[in-house]
Amino acid sequence: MSVHKEIKRITTHTLQEMKHRGEKISMLTAYDYSMATILDDAGLDVLLVGDSASNVMAGHETTLPITLDQMIYHAASVIRAVKRAFVVVDLPFGSYQGNSKEALNSAIRIMKESGAHGVKLEGGEEIIESVQRIITAGIPVMGHLGLTPQSIYKFGTYTVRAKEEEEANKLKTDVLALQAAGCFGIVLEKIPAALGKEVSESLSIPTIGIGAGPHCDGQVLVVNDMIGLTKGFKPRFLRQYLNLYEDILGAAQSYIQDVKNNDFPNDKEQY
Hints:
11 helices; Pantoate_hydroxy_MeTrfase; 3-methyl-2-oxobutanoate hydroxymethyltransferase activity; 8 strands; pantothenate biosynthesis; magnesium ion binding; alpha/beta
């Protein structure tokens, strides 16, 4: 008789329980089937199909150019690989701001066409109507506050946010509004660690930090940055676990040399 090992899928309920237990939540971005397979096998709790694909996959300077169709393509690729992780997909710029009906339609398309488990939106009280409308339709929503890359031209810089009292107070108001609206979690990006701690302790839902200190309920990084595929990007919050840029560069150079020297393929590598 064959024995099948049960794989327990991560859900919003699981993440809520993890916060209550004090168990940290691990989260990385993923954009394709092969990488998502590895990350899911590794045991990541959450995979974020981030609009950062605009930067690391397509080479754009900002996250703004990526489209809803492109996000659905990446999300569907990730979903095909995943057996355990909870998969959240960014709603791209222009697909939800200022129009809650459009926001709902965008979220529905992501859920139906990719099979994702939830969506993420940037912003606070100004997007509450969109958040509420999406959640009312039964779609889990994760918030995103602090440095919100879709608003980079408003900020004018990728520097740390909410260092001043006025902006910090707005962030604290926004997190409570997002929680009250029904968000299952909130990403906090590039804010002072003390504020990350205060906010995380004020909420009953999990916070996921990126450059927001160790007191958030979980952490997220862009996987391409974490494994060293991106060149020259080394912000303070990034811990680089591999240097795949150099490894792949060396492998490609060795391949070129073997081809040029007619050393590849050898006798064992042909039919």
